[in-house]
Amino acid sequence: MRLVVLGGGESGVGTAILGKKKGYDVFVSDFGKIKESYKEVLINNEIAWEEQKHTEALILNADVVMKSPGIPEKSAIVKKLVEKGIPVVSEIEFAAPFTKAVTIGITGSNGKTTTTMLTYHLLKSAGLNVGLAGNIGKSFAWQVAEDSFDSYVLELSSFQLDGIINYKPHIAIITNISPDHLDRYDYNYQNYIDSKFRITMNQTEEDYLIYDADDEAIAEWLKNNKTKAKLIPFSLTKTFSEGAFIKNNKMEVIINKEEFLMETESIALEGKHNMKNAMAATSVAKLMQIRKSTIRESMSNFQGVEHRLEKVLKIQNVQYINDSKATNVNATFFALDSMNSPTVWIVGGVDKGNDYNELMSLVREKVKAIICLGIDNKKIIEAFGNVVDVMVEVNNMNDAVRMGQRLTEKGDTVLLSPACASFDLFENYEDRGNQFKQAVYNL
To answer: SS3 for 337?
Structure first.
């Protein structure tokens, strides 16, 4: 069996290692450059590879192809594979049959990393032998090849779900759905929604789907489509006989007639959206039969996720917050919504078809100045030019942070929450967040 891996990054190299271990003839092809550290791994494992090209003769003879999530379906080589009827799958689909572990799959436009980390923290604190993978950390395939976990918490992007055929998580979570990555879905929101719901397409009556019952797109899909999974809703406004909700300042989770209660103020994460993440993760913990005392303790000591509303420093009584992970409008909505002081907002980058109107009322209420940090800021300026008093354009992070300092007074906040991808000026959102933190430390 010949396995061709497109993309020599974390998921690609992990898949290559697993494929080799399972007796496949493996070839890795990357149209860009492969990092030195990954090259070493491929060479040490005697896996054939090429970079900066796709040699068709070496690719179109595959029995199965694993495509890295970053490569669009529209790319020429993928189209040729599909025409030839060669299955093109994601890393999750390729690796899942090689493990007996229970998987918990988490997707959503926002909140999925926090929910994934929190769920992992809950299960690990309870002493379960659990791995963390997907869009985060070490590749799932690599772990399946080298470790033997009993369960995995997987953060799954819509791109990873597009590449599944038979994979099903025992427990699936959809945190929420809002327009994102529409450039990859022909600018059709419904295509993107359907993509997210692939997480439940193979689930059976034995499996569970935990979802945000306040989310319009999710409610609409569930009204018009069927899943066999047992539904477990969570909500900030409704209550359920089975599900998770907030009542009298307590989080209540009722599953299999067992009730769990916790005061919301003793939950470490702040903000309404984090209450939802907490309800989703607690629902998993209850399904995995983790003790109530362990859940309470883990919920009260969870540290949060880097680059997600991360408090960096207070300088001259101005709080600097790194929310670089906010790569779409909906994530930035949560960030602005949780601001309690006049805010200087650093925004911009590569726009994925954003509609900034959703932010209008929050910007009017909370934002005193906007700093545009991107190569093309036209849409942001058109949207908010008449709404805020001060609007500045910069093209590097040091200038953005220095300008932020200049525009603030005591008690204000400087918030980096870009609502855009980072690839115009930075390597990725982590690089953008780290540059922000470094610039703040240098003030």
So the answer is: helix
What are the tens digits of pLDDT across the range 11-26? 999 999 999 999 999 9
404 is in an annotated binding site: no
Task: Consult the annotation and say whether 114 binds a ligand.
Answer: yes
Whether residue 263 is found in the same domain as residue 356: no
- pLDDT, tens digit, 9 for 90 and up, residues 23-61: 999 999 999 999 999 999 999 999 999 999 999 999 999
Residues 291 and 329 placed together within one structural domain of the fold: no
| Same domain as 68, residue 215 | no
How far is residue 430 from each of residues 176, 183, 426, 437, measured CA to CA in Å?
23, 22, 9, 10
35 labelled as ligand-binding?
A: no
Quick one: 27 and 58 in the same domain? yes
Instruction: Say how many CA atoms lie within 13 Å of 41 toward its Cβ.
Output: 19
Q: Which residue has the tokens 């860009």?
A: 32
Which of 266, 283, 301 terminates a domain? The answer is 301
**Shared-domain flag, residues 375 and 264:** no
**Backbone phi, psi, residue 420, to 5°:** -140, 165
User: Is 157 labeled as ligand-binding?
Assistant: no
The reply to whether 111 sits in an annotated binding site is yes
226 is in an annotated binding site: no
Task: Read off the pTM.
Answer: 0.79
Establish whether 354 is an annotated binding residue. no
∠ at Cα 52 (50, 54), nearest 5°?
65
Structure tokens at 27: 């070839």
Q: Are residues 265 and 335 in the same domain?
A: no
Task: Identify whether residues 346 and 422 lie together within a single domain.
Answer: yes
Task: Find the domain containing 111 and state its range.
Answer: 93-301
DSSP secondary structure of 112-154:
HHHHHHHHHHHHHHTT--EEEEESSSS-HHHHHHH---SEEEE
Pair 116, 257 in one domain:
yes
Residue 102's Cβ-side half-sphere holds a number of Cα atoms within 13 Å equal to 16
Q: Are residues 346 and 329 in contact, defined by beta-carbon separation less than 8 angstroms?
A: no
The number of domains in the chain is 3
